[in-house]
TrEMBL record:
This is ATP-binding cassette superfamily. The keyword Translocase does not apply. Keywords: ATP-binding, Nucleotide-binding, Transport. InterPro entries: AAA+_ATPase, ABC_transporter-like_ATP-bd, ABC_transporter-like_CS, P-loop_NTPase. Residues 59-315 form the ABC transporter domain. One of its GO terms (molecular function) is ATP binding.
Length: 324
């Protein structure tokens, strides 16, 4: 058992943070499970979102199907995520948004269909990959921090558990990662001593912590997946998290060039219900309904789109094809 695992608790379930398998307590697994929704032309949607439609496809889902018991959740979902994109996954509650995120992250296997990571079909789960070609960071809705560990130990968890780096180096990386999310100096606090927004930022620091200290140009690119990162936050705290997602993103339109900022978050995908997050932190949207992608477009197109399902969702009307 690793350096931190003993202290993190013994009721364990597999979960990932930042692309490596780690272990979380059953309560946290439950919380992350609870944290849980084309007609449009994909190429046009990518182009109008300002994304280079020739950019490398980092993740592709092809006709993915997933059922839990008799309940069909995904029924042939297909889409691509390109390098540099900030993509939102939206749709009504229970339409499979978190499921699709977990499938992309390699935490869950589809029943049918393919998950292709940078041109290579993924076989099994992320934990089965011997030679990963993409680093995946996951920020769960619950933040999924270990209550019994300090914030610093949480952020450095995968390095303490899965690397041979000396403690002082890990502490330096923790400090760097916390500074990136505006949380300098909270290493020794416990999660219970943080606000909800701070917990989400700590979870983000854990997802983006550097694993390679060699300044290696070949270091794996990272895609971060956020499950409802602003749920439960006040409007200002939401803005802080939304801007943080943008700032950590190398594909940020304001960055001089991708090459210039290489090493950060190449693309991110966010499941959200929050209008502010759709407006502020996302360029392109994927709308899931009845297990399929029914619409893709930019955040601006979302406001004017005539597709009845999207219109009903955007206006919150009780009349329309979405039935509860
Ligand atoms: N591990 C599981 N076992 C059984 N059912 C599951 C499991 N995970 C998800 N489900 C079911 O699959 C459906 C889709 O869940 P999912 O969490 O992906 O939806 P969602 O769109 O993210 O919902 P919300 O917006 O409410 O968070 C739900 O009916 C849920 O109960």
């Amino acid at each position: 058992m690793g350096r931190m695992l003993r202290r993190a608790g013994r009721c364990v379930a597999h979960c990932t943070d930042g692309g490596r398998w780690s272990t979380v307590r059953r309560g946290e697994r439950k919380a992350s499970r609870i944290a849980r929704g084309a007609i449009g032309d994909l190429t046009e949607a990518v182009k109008s979102a300002g994304i280079d439609d020739q950019a490398e496809v980092l993740i592709e889902l092809k006709n993915v199907k997933k059922s839990f018991g008799k309940k069909v959740v995904l029924d042939g979902a297909s889409f691509k995520i390109r390098r540099g994109e900030a993509v939102g996954i939206i749709g009504s509650s229970g339409t499979g948004k978190s499921t699709v995120l977990r499938i992309m992250a390699g935490l869950l296997q589809p029943d049918e269909g393919e998950v292709i990571i940078r041109g290579r079909p993924r076989v099994g789960l992320l934990s089965d990959e011997k030679d990963p070609n993409l680093k995946v960071g996951m920020v769960f809705q619950s933040a999924a921090l270990f209550d019994s560990l300090t914030v610093g130990e949480n952020v450095g968890f995968k390095l303490y558990e899965h690397s041979d780096l000396p403690e002082d180096v890990i502490k330096g990386l923790i400090k760097e990662s916390l500074a990136q999310v505006g949380l300098s100096g909270v290493e020794d606090r416990y999660p219970a001593q943080l606000s909800g927004g701070m917990k989400k930022r700590a979870a983000l620091a854990r997802a983006i912590i550097k694993e390679d200290i060699s300044d290696n140009d070949d270091a794996l690119e990272e895609v971060v997946m956020y499950d409802e990162p602003t749920a439960g936050l006040d409007p200002v705290a939401s803005t802080v998290v939304e801007d943080l997602m943008r700032n950590l993103h190398t594909g940020n339109k304001t960055a001089a060039s991708y090459e210039e900022k290489k090493g950060g978050v190449a693309s991110y995908i966010v499941v959200t219900h929050q209008h502010s997050t759709i407006r502020r932190a996302v360029d392109r949207l994927i709308f899931l309904h009845a297990g399929k992608v029914v619409w893709e477009g930019t955040s601006e197109e979302f406001d004017t789109c005539e597709e009845p399902i999207v219109r009903q969702f955007a206006t919150g009307s009780l009349q329309g094809p979405i039935v509860y």
